[in-house]
Amino acid sequence: MKKFIIKFFLITCMTFVPIISCNYFVDPANRFHDAMVTKVAEYLNAGYIVKVPANLDEGLLKEKQIAAMSHAPETVIIGSSHVMYIPFDYRDTYNAGMSGAYLGDYYSIVGLLKYYDKMPKRVVIGVDPWAFLRAASNGRQTSITQYAVYLIDGFSEKEHLYDKNVKDIRGYSKIKELYSLEYFRDSLKRLEKTGLKKGNETVSVASDEVVGEKQKIAPGGRYVPAIKEFHTSRDIENEVATQVKSGTIYQVGKGFKDIPPEQWNEFEQLIKYLLDNGVKVHLYLPVWHPKVYEFFVSHENFSGVENVENAVRKLGEKYNIPVHGSYNPIKNNYTTNDFMDWLHLKPDKMFEDYKYVNNNIICTDCDM
C-alpha cells in the first residue's frame, strides 16, 4: 500500500508539476501576473488609447474598467470577438466584448455592472451558438466568474457574502487555470514562439484609433485590429478549408444538435432580469463565413447552430426585443472579401451587419 501511494504521488507530480510550472511562468494571457493589466486599465480609465502589448486577462481588465467608471454608460456591449471590433455609434458606449465568450461571460459582465452599480440603459448581446455549451457559472474568463455567481445567487435570493467570498472564488478559479490543459496548450505555443521571455510588454499609448502595426484598445473598450489581422482572401479561403476539413469548428467543436435546456433557461432568465430592471435589450446574431455556414446546415451534427438562431428570434418575438443580423451570410450577400479573417467580418462590415434587424429590415434608428 505504501509503495502504491509513493508511486501514485510520483506519477501525479510528474504529470502536473510541469503543467502547473509552465502555466504559471509562461502565463500567455497574464492571468497570474497582472501588473500589465493594471497599467493598461489605468491608461484606458484616464482616457488614453492603448496599444495592446501582449495577450492579457480580458476579464480582469473589464473588472478594473467597470469598477473605476464615474457613471453608468448608456449602452454596454456583451459578447465575443464578434462584437469587440464593432464601431457602434450609440452615445456613451462601453464595449465589454471578450474573446470566445460563453453564457457565463455574459453573466459575469452583468454581475459586474450590478455589483458596481453601473447598470446601463441598453445592453447589446452578441449571441454566438457556442455560448450555450457551458453553464452560466462557467465562463471562459475565470478571473471574473465570481460576478456570475453573485448574479445567480441574486436570482434565487440566496445570501451571497460577496466581499467575504470573492477571494475564495477568484483563488479557486486561478487554481483551476494552473492545471488547465487548455491553458497548458496555449503556454506551450507561447513557449515555442518566445521562450520564457515575455517579449516587449511595455504598455504604450496611441494617438488615434486608426489600424496600425499593433492592436489597440479604445477607452470605451472597443478593440482596433492590427494590420496583420486583415488576411488576404486567398488566406481566408485556405483557413476556411482547414476548418471544414477538420470537422471541428472554433468553439463549436464537433457540433451539437440541440440547445442544452438548462443553459437556454439561464439565458432567458438573464434577459428577463435586464428587462425587469428597465434595461433595453438588443440581440445580435454575428454572421459566419458562407462556406462555414454551408457546412453547418449540411451536417446534422451542427444543426444546433440554426436551432440557436431560430430560438433567439422566437425569444425576440416573445419579449419584443430587436434581433440584429443573422448567422446566415446569404441574407446580406456577404463574400470572402467582406471578412477580416475566416471568423470575423471587417469592422465596418460588422456594424453594417448589426444594422439589419428582424429579417433584414434596415435599422436607421437603432435607439428603439
Structure described in brief:
This protein is an alpha/beta fold and 368 residues long.
Give a structural overview.
By secondary structure, the chain is of the alpha/beta class. It has two domains: 1-30 and 168-200, no CATH class; 61-159 and 220-355, 3-Layer(aba) Sandwich (Rossmann fold), CATH 3.40.50. Helices cover 46% and strands 10% of the residues. It is built from 13 helices and eleven strands. A five-stranded parallel beta sheet has the order 3-2-4-8-9.
Largest sheet: 5 strands, parallel
Low-confidence parts: 161-167
Secondary-structure class = alpha/beta
CATH class of the largest domain: Alpha Beta
Listing every helix as H and every strand as E from the N terminus to the C terminus, the arrangement reads: HHEHEHEHEHHHEEEHHEHHEHEE
Named CATH architecture of the largest domain: 3-Layer(aba) Sandwich
Mean residue pLDDT: 85
- Determine the strand fraction and express it as a percent band: 5-15%
Q: Strands across the major sheet, in which order?
A: 3-2-4-8-9
Shape: globular
Report the C-alpha radius of gyration, rounded. 21 Å
How many angstroms does the end-to-end distance come to? 70 Å
CATH names the topology of the largest domain as Rossmann fold
Domains (count): 2
Helical proportion? 40-55%
Number of helices: 13
Strand tally is: 11
